[in-house]
Structures are given as C-alpha cells and as structure tokens.
Design brief:
With 238 residues, this protein is of the alpha/beta class. It has one domain (4-237): TIM Barrel (Alpha-Beta Barrel), CATH 3.20.20. It is 37% helix and 21% strand. The strands form 2 sheets. Strands 1, 2, 3, 6, 7, 8 and 9 form a 7-stranded parallel sheet that branches. The protein has a two-stranded antiparallel sheet with strand order 4-5. Helix 1 runs parallel beside helix 6.
Length: 238
C-alpha cells in the first residue's frame, strides 16, 4: 500500500483561552500536530508563546476577515473585520495579520489558511495564493501535494448538528478512506465554551475524540503516519 501521511491541524488557535486549552490538550494527549493562529484575539499571545516553547506544534496563519452564521435561510455576519470584496482592505488586513504573526511567533507561518475558508473566493483567493507562493508555504486547498479533508466537523454547511462526524467511530471511519500521500485533516478543538462562535458545544467532543486511544490505534492499524507542516519538505524528499 502506498504511504499515507496525516497532518491534523487545529483552527482558531488564539481565539480564546478555552480554545487554546483544547488545542493544547489535543496536541499533548491526542493527534493534533499543527495549529492555525488567529492573531487578532486576546488569547493569541498565549497561543503564540506555547508555539514558541513547543516547536513540534507547527503554527500557521489563520487569516480572519469575519465570521458568518446561517439564519433564516441567509448568511449573516456574526462579526466583521473588512469587506471581503474590497481588495485594498483585504490586502491591508492580511499584511497586518502577517506582521502580527511574525511579531508574536518570531518567524513566518508554516502554512496559510483562513477563517471559514474565505480564501476560496476572490479577491482573497488571489491575494493568499500570492502570499503563500512568496513565503513558500502551503495554502489550504491549493497545494498540489496536500489533500485537505474537512469532514471531521460536527455541523452541516447550514449549521445543523452532525454529531456522528466527530465521534471516535466517525473519525476512525474517515481515516480508513484517506488516499495515499499527505492529507491535512481540519479540526476545531476547544474547552469551556468561553467564546462566541457558531461552532461551540462540538469543540469539547472534538477534544475527546482526538485524544481517544481507539483513534491512535486506528492510525497504527492503517499504517498512517502523523506529520506536521514542518515535515512537508522531508516527506517530499523521501
């Protein structure tokens, strides 16, 4: 069987102390290998300090331009940073967030993505494609050597509960379907619910699942090797 490598990346690092605790627990006791830092939030400094002290957890930049919630058959802003259709506003905000990341972490991000995948639409898409190429790092969904899997998520696209996806059985079933090569598995662990988010109660269940011994055993049984974004060049050279 062709080799399979798995990067387990936790989004929203720095959003709140509770999310930080969940990600740290899922890294130290579970299978999380990387995290994406939201630099605009008060808990970002705490998250960055942990990343500096624990380089095995590779840190990327989670570009944050706002959050949307599906209500009454429409998408509405939960909070707003800049107009995502204004290229000048987006460029300025992305530049500022990258500068903040460098100041907090002391180095460039190992990977690049965005909150609620806003970089899949223009003009954010083109701006982040150029930034990723300039930095020489992967951009989620758009790196030829990395497949992104977003199916470990406890809600439907419209925000309806989908608890089965974030149980140990659900994750193990997902692991059995991973293709050869490198896969990034997105996740959103967190504890204590000390944040305002459309995805809240599910985060503690994610922590429990990511730390479940059955999941670790399934990785061994499937011959899937855990890696982080720091390992990309090493994997590609083997």
């Amino acid at each position: 069987m062709a080799e399979r490598y798995l990067i387990v990346n936790a989004d929203d690092f720095g959003l709140s102390p509770g999310i930080n605790r969940g990600i740290i627990e899922a890294h130290e006791r579970g299978i999380v290998t990387s995290a994406s830092l939201m630099v605009r939030w008060p808990a970002a400094a705490e998250a960055a300090a942990y990343g500096r002290e624990h380089p095995n957890l590779s840190l990327g930049l989670h570009v944050d331009l706002g959050e949307w919630v599906y209500r009454n058959e429409n998408w509405e802003h939960l909070y707003y940073v800049v107009a995502t259709d204004d290229i000048a506003e987006v460029a300025g905000e992305v530049s500022g967030q990258l500068a903040a990341f460098r100041q907090l972490v002391g180095q460039d991000p190992t990977h690049l993505d965005s909150h609620q995948h806003v970089h899949r639409r223009e003009p954010v898409h083109s701006l982040l494609r150029v930034l990723a190429a300039t930095l020489g790092i992967p951009l989620r969904h758009y790196h030829a050597g990395i497949n992104f899997c977003g199916q470990f998520y406890g809600q439907s696209r419209e925000g309806e509960p989908f608890a089965a996806a974030i149980t140990p059985a659900g994750l193990i079933n997902l692991l059995t379907t991973l293709p050869p090569g490198i896969t990034e598995l997105g996740c959103h662990p967190g504890l204590d619910a000390d944040f305002n988010s459309v995805y809240a109660d599910e985060r503690a269940q994610e922590v429990a699942t990511l730390c479940d011994a059955q999941v670790r055993a399934a990785l061994v049984a499937e011959g899937i090797e855990l890696r982080s974004f720091r390992d990309i060049e090493t994997i590609h050279s083997t």
